[in-house]
Amino acid sequence: MTQFDAFADFRMNNHHVIITGGAQNIGAGIAKTLASAGANVMIADLQGDKAKKTAANIEGETSSHCRGMACDVTNSEDINAVVAATVEAFGGISTLINNVGWGARHDDPTAISDQAFIDSYKLNTISAYRMSMACLPHLLKAENPSITNSGSFSSAVPAYDILAYGTSKAALNQMMISIAHMLAQKVRVNSILIGTVMTAGYSDAGIDPTVQEKLLHPDNLTGRTGKPRDIANAMLWLCSPAGSWVSGQIIKVHGGGSVVRLFDS
């Protein structure tokens, strides 16, 4: 009698994945989890050397192939280079994770420059569109093709301390739901609204790690901030055959959320 394998649908053998912004923090956690599930992974990151180092470490710890290369996702030539390198290395692309994203804190939300909004939109919204369209011809040839985006809880709640970032991530939500309908029955498209996952990226954005204490609030249902593994596990579900009946969804992974403004002085 064959033993039932409850985890079979979470395996990603024969999946070829691009993860943008995957050299560290949440992206690196996603890359490691998907590679551990059997996927071949290309890490595309602005920090090319770090992407290569992270990829080498993951490949050494898993049975999957993992590569890393430099990529500025706001540059179409870089995007095309990553797509070409992935196809050359793995033979195709089945899975795209638009994970890259960043947003600075605004000390004065009433005086945000036009350029700050434009730059945020280029990085957090347009780059995901460009990468998705560049991968599309290969996704259409793949089994269980999917696009999954790292969104932000700040796109769904008032977040005027990071107004440009939250606005661009809200645009990403609308854009990707539309793309899901555009690619219906061809490529699954979903987004995860990520809550507070304390990584080095928060410090880079000027956010003091002591804000974690504010998350210990009754409105946060789990009473803790997130870990990269929390997001990686959700990504694995959505990208793997286990998520094959899920598309056009915006899924919150944020510990139950919190109405606490992190940046109150």
UniProtKB/TrEMBL annotation:
Record EC number: 1.1.1.159
InterPro entries attached to this UniProt entry: NAD(P)-bd_dom_sf, Sc_DH/Rdtase_CS, SDR_fam
Pfam families assigned to the protein according to its UniProt record, in alphabetical order: adh_short_C2
Domain of life: Bacteria
SUPFAM superfamilies with a match to the protein in the record: NAD(P)-binding Rossmann-fold domains
Record keyword Cytoplasm present: no
PROSITE patterns: ADH_SHORT
Keywords from the UniProt entry: Oxidoreductase, Plasmid
Single annotated GO MF: cholate 7-alpha-dehydrogenase (NAD+) activity
PANTHER family per the UniProt record, alphabetical: OXIDOREDUCTASE, SHORT-CHAIN DEHYDROGENASE/REDUCTASE FAMILY (AFU_ORTHOLOGUE AFUA_5G02870), SHORT-CHAIN DEHYDROGENASE_REDUCTASE FAMILY PROTEIN
Family the entry assigns: Belongs to the short-chain dehydrogenases/reductases (SDR) family.
Protein name: 7-alpha-hydroxysteroid dehydrogenase
